[in-house]
Amino acid sequence: MTRSHVGWWSIWYVVLNMMILRITALIALALVHCALTTPTASAAGAQKKVLVELREQGGFAGIDNHVIVYASGCARLRHRTDRAVAMCLTNGEMRGLRGDLKRLRLGRSEAEPPGADFIKYTLAYRGHRIARYSLPSTWRPVVRRLEKILQKHGVTA
Question: What's the CA angle centered on 56, arms 143 and 74, to 5 degrees?
């Protein structure tokens, strides 16, 4: 073989090795990306563990608001018959909500009062679901905070 012929093969060999190296690096990068962005079973379970749930229904205005806050800090919000909105609370919102929940005393459900213009508040927390028509003092901070989150994040109340 001539000298120029050997040079061509060595250049081709280097180029081919560089291509294989790049493809291998891209595959490795893609695998790392998938591993980091795919939620684990425990993360998926934490996303679905409900921290607190509020449902407001009734009144002449036909209120039907629903707020679910998950332990992960994400929430699902719905006003009347609008589509549900998924979002995540800020650290400050979660800190405040957790503080309000520490002081929450659910008590017992109330019987529906006579009349027509009453709003039924249903709170679900720590495995209990209680319905009230008047807000006890420990409920007010939790309900007001959840209503504020409902309004702040683009869901009108």
Answer: 60
Round the average pLDDT of the chain to a whole number and report it: 82
Please name the amino acid found at residue 24: T
d(C-alpha 46, C-alpha 54), whole Å: 19
Asked whether 53 and 67 are in contact (CB, 8 A), the reply is yes
Mean pLDDT, residues 125-130: 94
Distance CA 75, CA 39 (A): 17
Average pLDDT estimate for 78-95:
87
For position 156, what pLDDT does the model report?
56
**For residue 112, what are its two tokens?**
């529906």
Q: How confident is the model at residue 95 (pLDDT cuts 50, 70, 90)?
A: very high
d(CA 100, CA 142): 6
Q: How many Å is the Cα radius of gyration of the chain? A: 28
Q: What is the DSSP string of 54-118?
A: EEEEETTTTEEEEEEEETTSEEEEEETTSPPEEEE--HHHHHHHHHHHHT-----PPPPPSSS--
Q: pTM of this prediction? A: 0.67
